[in-house]
Structures are given as C-alpha cells and as structure tokens.
Design brief:
single chain, two-stranded antiparallel ribbon, 10 helices
Length: 240
C-alpha cells in the first residue's frame, strides 16, 4: 500500500480523455463524463442504437434493423460515436492508447450483462494481418480480453480470421460496405471445436452499417456457434 501511495503521489490519476485529475484511475473527469453520450433507456434490441420514447417491456428495433436481415440475435453499444466517445475510440484504434480498453470494458460490461450466459464465448472482430502489423494490435482483441476479465467469461481471440484485405470502409455507402466484406472473414479452422455449440458474443470498437459485424457473425455461425450476439464500444447514430 505504501508503494502504491508513493506511485500515486508521483503519478496521480488522470482523466482518460483530457488528462485532468480524477479520483480513480482509468476514469473520466466530471466535465468529460457529462460530455460523453452513454447509451441507455430505450434502445434497439438488435444493434443497441438509442430510440425515442419511454423504455418498456417490449422488444424494439430501429428502422435499419427492421429492414436489414442481421445474422445475429441481439446487440448492444456503450457510447454514441460522437464527442468524447468518438475521441476515445479513435485514440484506442489509432493512437496507441491501449490502456483505454480497461475503462471501455467496464462500460461494455454494464450494457451486455443480459446477453451473456454460462455458455458464452467472447470473440473479437478480426483484422487482416497487414493492418495488424501496421497498427501492432487489434483494438477489438484488446476490448475482448478486458471484457472477458470483467465478465469472467472465456475468450477466443483468434476464433475468426480475415484472410482478404479490404479497403477502408469510411465514407462508403451501406451497400458498398456489405459488398466489400462479403467472404472477407472466415472461421479459424483450428478453433472450430472451441466455437461449436457456444453462444458467441462478438466484440468490436464501433458499429456503422454493421457490415463487418455481419460478416463476422456469419463466420461464427459457419463455425457452429449456437447463436451470436454483438457488442460495440460505440455506435454511429444519425444526427448525433
């Protein structure tokens, strides 16, 4: 305890967004917390996007999930991809801020409790090896390991593979995203026995159209998953 006190006096806890002092490590300061749009209340049960109206017992879907056949059962997201939430995702994804996976996993754990059971297996959305070599880590894998520890559930970090490199999808239409991801993600043949019969929870950093998650869900089902659900740190929301 004395050593921890000395370390904390030298390196006091700081906000993971703005570096302002905080009471606890790996947290947000008051102003950043208020500016972070956490998702709660009435949501789409399939993708986690927030919906208007009062939360009730009915299972609701957003317009997109009512018109697009999602190959997963249920979905959740912790943050809206805007403001501080967007900044945190980009820092985790491109800024080498790997320590952000720790608080992110705590936020994810709060929204995903009802999707997890004793048969659950957590799998990250994979990166192509070229992109992984360039970035040096898969942000979804960081999230899945941290979330697995929070939920005390097993993780299969290499359950899915991405053998075909796809161009960055930012700025592409929904149809173009789905076309680009067709067949780009496959189950790892060495992990079929691990995935078969499991309730797979796919983990990623952000959902836009859902094309990458759909390709991943199809691959998990091809590996024999009993069912698939998804959770993302952030959800792109129109006019957010």
């Amino acid at each position: 305890m004395r050593l921890q006190s000395i370390i904390r006096s030298i390196y006091p806890p700081q906000c993971v967004s703005c570096d302002a002092p905080t009471e606890a490590e790996f947290g947000l300061c008051g102003p950043c917390w208020r500016e972070t749009k956490f998702i709660g209340g009435t949501i789409c049960d399939t993708c986690g996007t927030p919906l208007q109206g009062e939360a009730g017992d009915d299972v609701l879907q957003c317009d997109n999930c009512m018109t697009i056949a999602r190959p997963w059962v249920r979905g959740r997201a912790a943050l809206i991809y805007t403001g501080v939430g967007r900044t945190l995702v980009l820092r985790l994804k491109h800024g080498d801020r790997t320590e952000l996976a720790r608080p992110a996993a705590q936020w994810l754990a709060r929204v995903v409790q009802e999707l997890v059971n004793k048969n659950s297996l957590l799998i990250p959305v994979p990166l192509h090896w070229v992109r992984l070599a360039r970035r040096r880590y898969n942000q979804a894998a960081l999230l899945v390991h941290a979330l697995g520890a929070e939920l005390d559930r097993p993780v299969c970090a290499d359950g899915l593979l991405r053998p075909r490199k796809t161009a960055p999808l930012e700025g592409h239409s929904r149809d173009a995203r789905f076309a680009a991801l067709a067949g780009a993600i496959i189950p790892n043949p060495k992990r079929l026995d691990v995935i078969a019969g499991k309730s797979v929870l796919l983990v990623d950093d952000v959902m836009t159209s859902g094309a990458t998650l759909a390709a991943s869900a199809e691959a998990a089902k091809a590996a024999g998953a009993a069912d698939v659900s998804i959770v993302t740190l952030a959800r792109v929301v129109k006019d957010a």
